[in-house]
Amino acid sequence: MSLRLTWRGYYTVYSTAILLLFYMLTGDRLLAILAVVPLALIVLDGVILLSLTRAPCRARLERSLVEVTLGDSKSVDVVVECRGLAGVEAPEGSSVGMLRGGSTARVTLRVHGLNIGFRRIESLRVARRTPLGLLELWESVALGLGVRVTPRVSRLILYAYGLLTGAYTSDLEPHEVSMARATLFKGWGEYRHTREYSPGDRFKYLDWKATGRTLKLMVKEYSSTPRAGLLVVDTRCIGAYTCDNILSGLLSIAVAYYTEHTPVLLYEVDKGRTLNLDPRGLLAYAISKSLEPEKASKLELYEYIPPATLGELRLLARGVPLESSKNRGVDVGVEGGSMVVVTPLVVGGKSLVDIVAQYRGKGLEVFVVTSRSPWLDSRDVEEAYSIYSTVRNIIGKLEELGAIVYACCPPKRVTSRNL
Fold it and tell me: How far apart are CA 123 and CA 332, in angstroms?
C-alpha cells in the first residue's frame, strides 16, 4: 500500500510553498492562514482515503485459466469491486485495455504470450481517489489468474497428425491454414464439372443448386494447377519466437498442399538438396523439421505433445519416402508459375535475395513467408535494433525485386514501411 500525490495535489503543495515564502518575506499573518488551508485539505483527503480501506477491494474472474499462443495476446474480463476506484495498474506481461464503471468496474486485462510456459498473475494494483483528488492510494488486490503460453506449432503438429491418421478433416482446419490457402491457392484452376459428393470432399465446393435439383449432395470440381512450382525452405532460427513462426508457416503451407492434393518440388537451403514430395511427404517433412531436437527443445514441444503421439509422428515421418537429389543447388529448372520461400530472413538473407533475383529473372511470381517481429528473440535493445534493421533492409531488397512478403502467423502482408 502506498500513498501518492496526484497532479492536483502537487499544485496544492506548490501553492502552499509559495504562500509560506511570501509570509516569510512580508510577515503577513493572513498569508500564513491561507497557507494552512491547502495543507488541511491534503490531510483531510488522506484521512478519507484511509477510511476507505475499511472496505477492501476485491477482484473476480470469469475464468481462472487463460491459454495464449506465443507472441499473441488475449483479453480477460476482470470485475473489480473497490470504493473510490480511480485506476488499475497491470502486472508484468499484461496491460489494461479498458476500465469501465465506478466502484464496481469491469477491467479488460490484455495478457501477452511472451514466454512459453505457465505463470500466475497473483494480483493487480488498484488506485483509490476521493472527490478532492489530491491524493491517491495504491494497493494490491488478489487475482490468481493462471496463464499458459503455448507454441503455435504444437497445435498445427497435432492437426497435421490428425490429417495423416484420418482423425481430422480439412473442414476443421486452423485459421493459419485457411489464410495460407487463401494466399497461395487463390484463383486455382477452372471449373470442370459437377459430380456427386464423395467422402473427403470439402464442403465449400458444394453445388447447392445441383443438390436441390437432384436431392443428392453435389460438388463442383475444378482443375488444380498449383501456383507454387517450387518451395524453398530455410528453418534456421535464432530463438523460440522465430522458430514457432517459421515452423508454423511451413506446416500451414504443407497442410494447404495436402488438402489440395498437390505435389511440390522442395529445395532445402541449409542442406542444399532438392526433394520431390507428394502431399503426404511434404506434410511428413514439415512435421519432422518441427521435431528436430534443437527446435523441439526451444519450443518445449515435449511438454505439449503426448509422448505416444510424438512416437507415432516420428514413425509417420520416417515411413514416407523422400526422393532427393543432393548438390543440385536451387537451379532446379522450374519454369513459369510461382515460388514460395519460407525463411527467417535473419539467417541467410543475402543468399535468399540471390535466389529470388534468379527466379524473378525467369518470370516466376515469388512469395516470401517470414517470421513476425523476429527481434523479440533478442537479448537486449541493441541486438533487437540490429535484427530490425537487417530484416527491414532485406524486405526492401525483396520488394525491389517484385517479391511479395508475408509475416507469419497467420500470414499478413508486410513491407519495409509497415514492418
Answer: 58
Task: State yes or no: cis peptide before 411, omega within 30 of 0.
Answer: no
- Is residue 148 classed as helix, strand or coil in its secondary structure? strand
Q: How far apart, in whole angstroms, are the C-alpha atoms of residue 221 and residue 205? A: 7
146-170 pLDDT, tens digit per residue, is: 999 999 998 888 888 888 777 665 5
Q: How far is 109 from 59, CA to CA, in rounded Å?
A: 12
Q: What is the reported pLDDT for 320?
A: 55
pLDDT of residue 146: 92
Buried b (16+ CB within 10 A) or exposed e, 349-364: beebbebbbebbeeeb
Residue 173 contacts residue 260 (beta carbons within 8 Å): no
In the beta sheet, which residues pair with residue 89? 125
CB count within 10 Å of CB 229 equals 19
Task: Give the predicted TM-score (pTM) of the model.
Answer: 0.75
Q: Which helix (H) or strand (E) holds 37?
A: helix 29-52
- Per-residue pLDDT tens digits for 169-208: 555 667 777 667 666 665 445 566 788 887 656 676 788 8
> By percentage, how much of the chain surpasses pLDDT 70?
84
What ranges in 56-204 are assigned the alpha helix state H?
A: 152-165, 175-184
Nearest one of 220, 226, 304, 310 to 260, comparing CA atoms = 226
User: Which residues neighbour 338 within 8 Å (Cβ) at sequence distance 6 or greater?
Assistant: 227, 228, 229, 364, 365, 366, 367
